[in-house]
Amino acid sequence: MTISNLYWELIATGVLLLILLISRALIIGLIKRFSHKEQIVDRRSQLITKLINYLILGCALVGGFMIWGVDVRDLGVIISSVFAVIGVAFFAQWSILSNITSGLIMFFTFPYKIGDRIMIHDKEYEYVGVIEDIKTFHIVIVNDAGQRITYPNSLVLQKGVSILNQNPDYSSENDVVNKKNTNAS
User: Rounded distance, CA 1 to CA 26, Å?
Assistant: First the structure.
């Protein structure tokens, strides 16, 4: 490796990092504006931000490998081996991938918010309660008896859901418990 190649690689790495940092700042800014506009709880936007950070880190690694001349065939063997293991794991638990994807879809297009009272129409049961939290893999519902029900994100998108009472001024997840307790008094 010559000195001129080393300079080029350092400059290219710096440009790549600069582009990725600017992209990250723009994307996270858009997510924050969207979540503020749609009144999405900060924890939900932080979860999406974390996923974006992982994606940008992956892009940085791939770009760095390409810049520093890692042999594509060697990299291809490593990546295909990792994806083979991940593929087998996801095939065995395919719902994990669908729940993560559903969680992302629900962040941008979910008509229900934390604090809303909903009813999920399943074949055998109807789940009625207040949405306490929306996580990466599942939604947490607190029913009238105070039980916490976790329901997979992918099934929430597949089942019929009725909004029984929207809570437009919901400010934090602790309000769900407080409002339920004050209504019981």
Answer: 36
Residue 146, judged by CB atoms within 10 A of its CB (0-12, 13-18, 19+), counts as exposed
Pairing between β-strand 160-165 and β-strand 148-152 as defined by DSSP bridges: unpaired
Long-range contacts of 9-12 (CB under 8 A, 24+ apart): 9/67, 9/68, 9/69, 12/67
Reduce the DSSP state of residue 121 to 3 states and report it. strand
**Bigger pLDDT: 180 vs 93:** 93
- Scan for tokens 């991940």, then name that residue: 86
- Does the global pTM surpass 0.70? no
How far apart CA 83 and CA 78 sit, in angstroms, is 9
Which residues is 152 bridged to in the sheet?
Answer: 138
